[in-house]
Amino acid sequence: MGSAPSTPSSMQKAPGAGAAATACDGQQPTTTLSLWTTEDAKPLQPLEVTLNPPTRLAFTLVDDMEAMAVLHVTNNSDRDIAFRVRSNHVRYSVRSGIDVVGPKRTAAVAIIVDPAACATWSEEDHADAFHVEMVALRRPSPPTSFSSPLTSPTAAAQSEAMAALWPTLTPDMLHITPIAAACTRWNQMHEPL
């Protein structure tokens, strides 16, 4: 019996940040989401992540239809990045709002407003905002990536690992980028020239 390799003091692992993924052969490999931080990394080192659009999501409101905007999260680094998209208003349904984007990959997040909420949302209501919370992950050994189909955990295992990770994070561990929300109401009337 050998002892487990020690983790350098410059790397910290989030407590309770792990989940099991079921492999095709019935084995239970462990999927661990570990933070890539240093003890003296305050302020945090910048992440190589691009958000598109970078500052504002635009929604066009049409009567009796849902409105949608898409936020692209592009990871330009060589590390996995965990992210979560949060809103300050209940009118939004955020699809794939908590995810891990692999190195040199882009994740698309759909943000939807249902028709009933569109009907009550006015152009003057500009207080809505989203916050994209991001943290770099340290790859387990042997290296695996969530973007590789052969080594990725199942969707359920990844969701479980993400659910375990986020409560362990404090604001000083996160990169938080605000994104504003703006709307315009589509009008079918023809305006004179």
Automatic annotation (TrEMBL):
Region (Disordered), start-end ranges: 1-26
Species of the source: Aphanomyces stellatus
Name under which the protein is recorded: Aste57867_13009 protein
MSP domain mapped to chain residues: 48-184
Composition skew (Polar residues), residue ranges: 1-12
Lineage of source species: Eukaryota, Sar, Stramenopiles, Oomycota, Saprolegniomycetes
Listed PROSITE patterns: MSP
Chain segments annotated as coiled-coil in the UniProt record: none
Signal peptide location: none
Low complexity biased stretches: 14-23
